[in-house]
Amino acid sequence: MAHELFDQQNVQADVYFFRWVFHNWSDKYCVRILRAQIPALRRGSRLLVQESLMPETTSVCCGAERSSRSMDIEMAYIFNSKERTLPEWKLLFKEADPAFVFVDVIQPKGSALAILEFVWEMI
């Protein structure tokens, strides 16, 4: 179901899926997008994010790392955004609200995209 990113989410669901959304936005706007989801979340709701996952330096072959770094530079000069590492993703969600808890990341070998899973654990 489509939804205006910055509007308050009013549809309750078990899973919210974002594909290639956040890499176009700076951290400030990503936090706004995530916070807009909070009104509809209930304990155990999951946010799945399918995005590029910036590799740690020297963790992949030179060509793959070069491609990721090039995309990161493109995101910076086109959108004032960036490709994020796993620690940056975790920090982004924590900044939006500490109730977002990282669960897992799945990145098939050779894939440019990963799926990050966060669960809403409001106390």
From TrEMBL:
Gene3D superfamilies xref list: Vaccinia Virus protein VP39 (3.40.50.150)
Alphabetical list of Pfam families matching this protein: Methyltransf_2
Domain O-methyltransferase C-terminal residue range list: 4-96
Top-level taxon: Eukaryota
GO biological process terms held by the UniProt record: methylation
GO molecular function: O-methyltransferase activity
The entry's keywords: Methyltransferase, S-adenosyl-L-methionine, Transferase
Name of the protein described by the UniProt record: O-methyltransferase C-terminal domain-containing protein
Source lineage: Eukaryota, Fungi, Dikarya, Ascomycota, Pezizomycotina
